[in-house]
C-alpha cells in the first residue's frame, strides 16, 4: 500500500489536458465525518486536474461545504456538487442517554435511495468520458451496485476507519493479527461498540462491496504499517488493490489573517502561550448527558489549564431542521473561567485549532478523522471513546502508538466520568513528565506523517557519474532540483573515456558512443547502492533508461526490488 499524493503542489499541464478523459465520482455517507473525509479527498484528486463529481442530498452537500476547514471548496473549479433529493426520513434529536447514535440510522437507509440518480449520473458520464472512477464510502456500496454494468466504470471503497480497527474485526473471526497479546486483552468486542441494527446495515453494504476494484484508506504507513500489510496479505481483501493515501486533509493550514471567516477562538489562541491549551471536542454523533456535562465542566475548571471546549449537541439527520438542544453549564461557569477557557457552541474549526502552536493537547472521542488530524499536527490525545471504531482507535493511540492517555477506559463505558477523573487526565497530559514524553512521541509521529505527504512521500535516488549528475542539475528548467529534499543525487566516478569533438560532417553522434560504453561500468556501484537500500526499505523500484539495462542486471537477485524500463 503506497502513500503517494502531493499536497500544495502544481501538477504538470499534461495532467490537466488529460483530465477530461477520466472523471471521479465521490459517494459519501451523509454523516459529518464521512462527508468531510471524501470532500478532502476530492480536493486532492482535483488538484491533479481531474474533474470530481461529489454526490449527496441537497442538505448534506450544503453541510459538507459549510463545515469544511483548511481550504475553500467553492474555489475548486473542478469539483462539481450534485444535490439529489432523498425521500423524507425521520430526523429525531440525539438521545444523550444512549451511547450509539441510532438517531441517524433512518437517514442512512433513506440515502440508499440515491442508487437511481447516481446510476443515471454514472451512465451519462460514461458516455462522455474514457473512464469513470467511483469512490464510495464503504457504507454506501449498495448505492453504486450498478457500476459493474457500465463497461468503462470501476469502483473503489473508501474505508472511513483505521486499518487497526479492521484488523481487530478480522481477529474476531479467528485470523492472526500483528498485535501484542497484552494489547489484544484490552481489545473491544464489536458487539460492545455498535447496535445489532447497525450491524445489519453494515453487513448489507459489505455484500454489495464485493465487486470493488480495491480500497482506499485515510491513513499513513507511518501510523499503521503492520495492519496495512496484514490487510494486503489477506485472502479476500489482499487480492484487490489497496492504497493508504492519508491524511486526506491539508497538513499545512493557511492562516486566513484577513479573512472574515477566521473563527474568534483562533484570535484567542493567538494570545496564548505555545502548547498551553487543551482542545475538548467529542465529534458530531454523540451528545453528553446533563450530568456528564457538569462533571466535565468542573474538571476542566479545576485543572487550572487553558481550554477550548466545543459544547454542541450531536448532529441530527438534517442539521438545518428544527431546534438544537442547548446544553446547560453550572451557574456562573463561563464568567469564572473567562480569560483561560472558551466554550464554543457553534461549528469550530477543528483542523486550524489542532494546527495552532498554542494547542498542546486534545480531549477526543477518537473518531478516526479527529485522530488523523491530531496525529498529523503532532498533538497528543486524551481518549474518551463513545462507540463504533472509537474504542479501537483509543487503544491504538494509547497502547500501540503511545501518543495519548485514557480519560475513560472502554471497560467503564457505562459509568459517568467524574470531575476528578477529568482534572487528573488534563493535568497528566498537559503538565506532567509522562505527558511530556507522550507529547514528544506525538510530535515525532506528526513530523513523519507530514513528511510522508510532501512530494508524494517517496524517496528518490538519482544515479549518475559526477560529470553527468552535475550537468543534469545545471540544465534543468521549470523547478529547482536542489529545493526538493527527497531527491538524493549519487555521483559515481566514471572510468576515463575518449571524449572527441563532434564531427560536423556526420549526422549520427558517434562521438558519444565511448561514453555510453564507459557508463555501463557503473553496474557495481549501482548494485551496491541497491543492496544497501533493499535492507532499509520495504520496496525498491528502479526506473532505468532502456539503453542502461545492463547496469541493473543484478536486480533479479535482490528480493524486494523490481525494475521498469523507461523508453526515452
UniProtKB/TrEMBL annotation:
Q: What is its EC number?
A: 2.4.1.-
Q: Biological process GO terms, please?
A: cytokinin metabolic process; glycoside biosynthetic process
Alphabetized PROSITE patterns for the sequence = UDPGT (PS00375)
Which keywords, in A-to-Z order, does the entry hold? Glycosyltransferase, Transferase
> Residue limits of the Glycosyltransferase N-terminal domain?
21-250, 456-568
Gene Ontology molecular functions? zeatin O-beta-D-xylosyltransferase activity
Q: Does the keyword Glycoprotein apply?
A: no
* Keyword Metal-binding (UniProt): no
Family matches, as PANTHER family: ANTHOCYANIDIN 3-O-GLUCOSYLTRANSFERASE-LIKE, GLYCOSYLTRANSFERASE
Recorded family membership: Belongs to the UDP-glycosyltransferase family.
Q: What is this protein called?
A: Glycosyltransferase
Species of origin reads Ilex paraguariensis
Amino acid at each position: 500500500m503506497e502513500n503517494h499524493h502531493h499536497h500544495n503542489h502544481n501538477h504538470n499541464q499534461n495532467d490537466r489536458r488529460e483530465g477530461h478523459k477520466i472523471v471521479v465520482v465521490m459517494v459519501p455517507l451523509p454523516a459529518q465525518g464521512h462527508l468531510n473525509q471524501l470532500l478532502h479527498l476530492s480536493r486532492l484528486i482535483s488538484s491533479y486536474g481531474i474533474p470530481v463529481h461529489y454526490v449527496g442530498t441537497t442538505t448534506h452537500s450544503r453541510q459538507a461545504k459549510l463545515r469544511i476547514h483548511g481550504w475553500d471548496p467553492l474555489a475548486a473549479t473542478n469539483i462539481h456538487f450534485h444535490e439529489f433529493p432523498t425521500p423524507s426520513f425521520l430526523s429525531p434529536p440525539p438521545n444523550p442517554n444512549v451511547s450509539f447514535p441510532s438517531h441517524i440510522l433512518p437517514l442512512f437507509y433513506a440515502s440508499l435511495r440515491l442508487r437511481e440518480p447516481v446510476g443515471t449520473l454514472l451512465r451519462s458520464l460514461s458516455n462522455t468520458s474514457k473512464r469513470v472512477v467511483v469512490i464510495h464510502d464503504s457504507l454506501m456500496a449498495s448505492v453504486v451496485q450498478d457500476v459493474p454494468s457500465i463497461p468503462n466504470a470501476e469502483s473503489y471503497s473508501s474505508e472511513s476507519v483505521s486499518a487497526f480497527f479492521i484488523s481487530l474485526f478480522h481477529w474476531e473471526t479467528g485470523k492472526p493479527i500483528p498485535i501484542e497479546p497484552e494489547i489484544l486483552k484490552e481489545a473491544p468486542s464489536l458487539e460492545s461498540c455498535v447496535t445489532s441494527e447497525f450491524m445489519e446495515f453494515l453487513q448489507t453494504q459489505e455484500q454489495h462491496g464485493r465487486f470493488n476494484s480495491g480500497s482506499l484508506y485515510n491513513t499513513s504507513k507511518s501510523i499503521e504499517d503492520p495492519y496495512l500489510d496484514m490487510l494486503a496479505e489477506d485472502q479476500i481483501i489482499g487480492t484487490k488493490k489497496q492504497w493508504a493515501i492519508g491524511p486526506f486533509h491539508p497538513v499545512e493550514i493557511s492562516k486566513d489573517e484577513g479573512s472574515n471567516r477566521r473563527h474568534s477562538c483562533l484570535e484567542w489562541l493567538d494570545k496564548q502561550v505555545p502548547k498551553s491549551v487543551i482542545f475538548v471536542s467529542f465529534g458530531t454523533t454523540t451528545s453528553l448527558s446533563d450530568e456528564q456535562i457538569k462533571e466535565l465542566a468542573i474538571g476542566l475548571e479545576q485543572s487550572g489549564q487553558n481550554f477550548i471546549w466545543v459544547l454542541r449537541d450531536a448532529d441530527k439527520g438534517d442539521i438545518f431542521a428544527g431546534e438544537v438542544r442547548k446544553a446547560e453549564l453550572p451557574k456562573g461557569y463561563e464568567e469564572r473561567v473567562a480569560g483561560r477557557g472558551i466554550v464554543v457552541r457553534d461549528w469550530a474549526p477543528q483542523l486550524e485549532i489542532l494546527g495552532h502552536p498554542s494547542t498542546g493537547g486534545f480531549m477526543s472521542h477518537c473518531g478516526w478523522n479527529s485522530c488523523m488530524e491530531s496525529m498529523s499536527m503532532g498533538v497528543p490525545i486524551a481518549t474518551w471513546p463513545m462507540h463504533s471504531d472509537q474504542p479501537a482507535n483509543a487503544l491504538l493511540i494509547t497502547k500501540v502508538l503511545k501518543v495519548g492517555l485514557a480519560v475513560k477506559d472502554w471497560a467503564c463505558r457505562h459509568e459517568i466520568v467524574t470531575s476528578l477523573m477529568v482534572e487528573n487526565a488534563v493535568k497528566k497530559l498537559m503538565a506532567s513528565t509522562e505527558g511530556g514524553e507522550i507529547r514528544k512521541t506525538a510530535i515525532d509521529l506528526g513530523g513523519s506523517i507530514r513528511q510522508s505527504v510532501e512530494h508524494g512521500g517517496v524517496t528518490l535516488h538519482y544515479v549518475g557519474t559526477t560529470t553527468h549528475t552535475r550537468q543534469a542539475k545545471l540544465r534543468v528548467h521549470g523547478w529547482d532540483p536542489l529545493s526538493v529534499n527527497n531527491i538524493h543525487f549519487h555521483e559515481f566516478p566514471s572510468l576515463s573515456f575518449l571524449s572527441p569533438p563532434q564531427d560536423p560532417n556526420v549526422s549520427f553522434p558517434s562521438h558519444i558512443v565511448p561514453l555510453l560504453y564507459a557508463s555501463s561500468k557503473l553496474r557495481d556501484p549501482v548494485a551496491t547502492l541497491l543492496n544497501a537500500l533493499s535492507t532499509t526499505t520495504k520496496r525498491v523500484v528502479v526506473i532505468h533508461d532502456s539503453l542502461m539495462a545492463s547496469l541493473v542486471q543484478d536486480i533479479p537477485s535482490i528480493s524486494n526490488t523490481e525494475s521498469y524500463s523507461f523508453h526515452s
